Amino acid sequence: MRNLFLSLSFLLCCTAMSGAHRERVNPAADPPTTRTIHLRVSNVKVARGMIWVGIYEGDHDFMDREKARIIGVNVEAAGDNYLELPDMVVNQEYALAVFHDVDNDGDMNRNWLGLPSEPWAFTGEAKTRLRLPTFSEVKFRVTESLGLTSLSLRMY
């Protein structure tokens, strides 16, 4: 009888522990919800070169070409050009930096003052045009309902 009681106790204890263990194991986390953002780049003056978009996720990678996700598209026409920015995580903050590489040399050309000599744009509004904006000045949040986003190129 004692052996039966010990066996039942052991079995109950193992069953309880295995159930508790299963409850503590976290199921695989759901992957984050992503969406494709459609970007309209307007005020393109000449139908040549490339439009480059840098996608930044925070202060740690902002304006760092080596850390950014870069997407480029050939300029087919003056006026509006459209790009797709895939895999943008919903509820995450991003900043976009865009420039029209008119001479297609892969670099943002600058004048003798160090200011861009090719058209450029950022999401949001920088406090001043005399310096690069900060991430917090130009960030935006991706939402489920975010549709077409527009940026207009500027020149100094």
UniProtKB/TrEMBL annotation:
<dbReference type="InterPro" id="IPR018673">
    <property type="entry name" value="DUF2141"/>
</dbReference>
<keyword id="KW-0732">Signal</keyword>
<feature type="signal peptide">
    <location>
        <begin position="1"/>
        <end position="22"/>
    </location>
</feature>
<dbReference type="Pfam" id="PF09912">
    <property type="entry name" value="DUF2141"/>
</dbReference>
<protein>
    <submittedName>
        <fullName>Uncharacterized protein (DUF2141 family)</fullName>
    </submittedName>
</protein>
